[in-house]
Design goal:
Number of helices: 18
Shape: globular
Strand order of the largest sheet: 4-3-16-15-17-18-19
Pfam families: ACAS_N, AMP-binding, AMP-binding_C
Radius of gyration: 24 Å
CATH architecture of the largest domain: 3-Layer(aba) Sandwich
Distance between the termini: 66 Å
Largest sheet: 7 strands, mixed
Helix content: 25-40%
CATH topology of the largest domain: Rossmann fold
EC number: 6.2.1.17
Number of domains: 2
Number of strands: 30
Keywords: Ligase
Bound molecules: coenzyme A, adenosine monophosphate
Family: Belongs to the ATP-dependent AMP-binding enzyme family.
CATH superfamily of the largest domain: ANL, N-terminal domain
GO molecular function, one term: propionate-CoA ligase activity
Oligomer: single chain
Structural class: alpha/beta
Length: 625
Amino acid sequence: MTMGAYADAYQRSRTDPEGFWLDAAAAVDWDRAPTRALDDSGRWFPDGVLNTCFNALDRHVRDGRGDQDAVIWDSAMTGQVSRWTYRELLDRVSRFAGALRARGVGKGDRVIVYLPMIPEALVVMLACARIGAVHSVVFGGFAPKELAARIDDARPTVLVAASCGLEPNRVVEYKPIVDEALRLAEHRPEGGVLIFQRDQVRAELGPGEADAAEELAASEPTDCVPVAATDPLYVLYTSGTTGRPKGVVRDNGGHAVALRWSMSAIYDIGPGEVFWTASDVGWVVGHSYIVYGPLLAGATTVVYEGKPVGTPDAGAFWRVIAEHGVKALFTAPTAFRAIKRVDHEAAELARYDISGLRTLFLAGERLDPETYQWAVRTLEVPVVDHWWQTETGWPICANLRGLEPMPIKPGSPTVPVPGFDVRVLDQAGEELPTGADGAICIKQPLPPGMLPTLWGDHERFVESYLSRYPGYYLTGDSGHVDEDGYVFVMGRTDDVINVAGHRLSTGSMEAVLATHPAVAECAVIGVRDELKGQVPRGFVVLKSGVQADPEALRAELVAAVRDQIGPVAAFRDVDVVDGLPKTRSGKVLRKSMREIADSGETKVPSTIEDPAVLEDLRAALRGDR
Ligand code: COA
Ligand code: AMP
């Protein structure tokens, strides 16, 4: 029987992972090529030595791509567009690597990166990779306290920031956020703080702080430092079920091999083609497909500072596609919902020629059928849903456009990507039959590129992901596989929510609400939202005897979440209720709360302690009280 290219590749990745991944590794330039793919402890390319920055930049210049654009920066916020060739980007990166080194950053040292969507973000990340340092990028929408938590966990030698980020309604000054974070943190970056000054705001620099662009210009180019494939490339913090973020570690070798392979097999993007991921370098999507993936492939990456709507209009995405010759766009469904809401007939499209666009890739949250249909009708190109997480670093399930395009089933991110042995398990850990919903897990060994551990806390890694079902990685998502092997992802089984494609923890919001002096108990759940997919909604029970003006209290609680987590939490709704629905053993029935919020109805769980609180909750959600 002849198999399709996908089935062939998938089967080989399972029966002969060594051969499959050593072949894929040949697309990477190694200082010492690996002789083995996987060792007994699940680490990839254990004897390989390489440099990720070399693979992203130097090798392309060496191979004659020096004059090709590496980065196109398009700021819809300022109207600026600039282009850097591979040679120009390499020059900046190698100089900035020199600047970092002069400040004491060496192999294995961490650098916190708090930058908006400017091309300097790529310079800093790649400069770290060049000298074997470990970058940890923090998204600009997080508050000082979140930045401080990451500083204390990563213990950076240097912190690099910009003077400001630009949001449609305001200039976000970063320096006061950095100052406050450093005041809250115990750790001091002994190599100092470097600031990229932007025209909109110039930050005042104090002792131990310097102008990043000046240091870059004054530094000598520095060469690549070879690192072990298993050495960390970066740490990216993501929301877990508790308030404490998890430091997802990415290694160098597995990551380079997996991303390089994904660029051709999944995204069908080759050298010289323009790839645009409209996300942010602060998220995993940005790490993998704004920075590393396209550059490892020798493609041109678009760095877009702007929104899908309002900067200045709902044609912004079409303009970027047309102006820069974008072949594939990757973004979150929310961005398309935002455009659809403002320009349902896509009238703006008439102003641009986007005939060069081949594919739209969507991920980060569930792709609802309506948005899918709208995108297909509007763009007239394949709309490819694919499913992945910060932890995996690249897609678990996808329609592999470069390997073998498969029929699309709306609602499904298609099939498991080679390397990911996807299984659906029941509570007891038994594999479920076709069509049955359960916990989606990945059978070990895990593919290259996936996190090998959590920064400084291997026990938490094992406990969070590997202990629930021995031999399997727990994705935290539920869903099923149909008779054709298509995977359907239904939603998280834990307290992680997805707000406009941003992953947030309801636990961390609860931790903020609980510190308010009037609050005895609280719960935060994700409720359905037409634009953002989900938004957080809080419920608080007051301490007995406390009288509080509900409006004033609401405003205080909303402000507290914004101050302590950040505007990105989009926390706006909170109600005072008489009690939270709980089991007799005291567990808050968040699932029942979610059902009431989304449908208005829920069966009263037989375990509930006091059914009357559900009625009170319904009234709060209806706005009757
Ligand atoms: N720095 C500082 N603040 C930021 C920020 C950043 N990098 N990113 C967002 N924020 C702020 C916003 O200004 C907003 O603040 P406000 O409450 O003062 O208005 C708040 O965080 C919420 O932002 P967001 O969730 O983005 O909502 P929005 O209403 O500003 O925009 C969309 C809605 C749909 C246009 C926007 O979410 C979007 O473009 N989404 C695309 C999806 C995406 O990129 N996902 C990333 C993962 S792939
Ligand atoms: P993040 O780590 O921020 O990438 O978020 C990962 C989570 O987003 C996953 O665990 C899913 O819950 C959700 N997610 C990402 N992509 C998809 C998708 N294509 N369909 C459904 N959910 C998705």
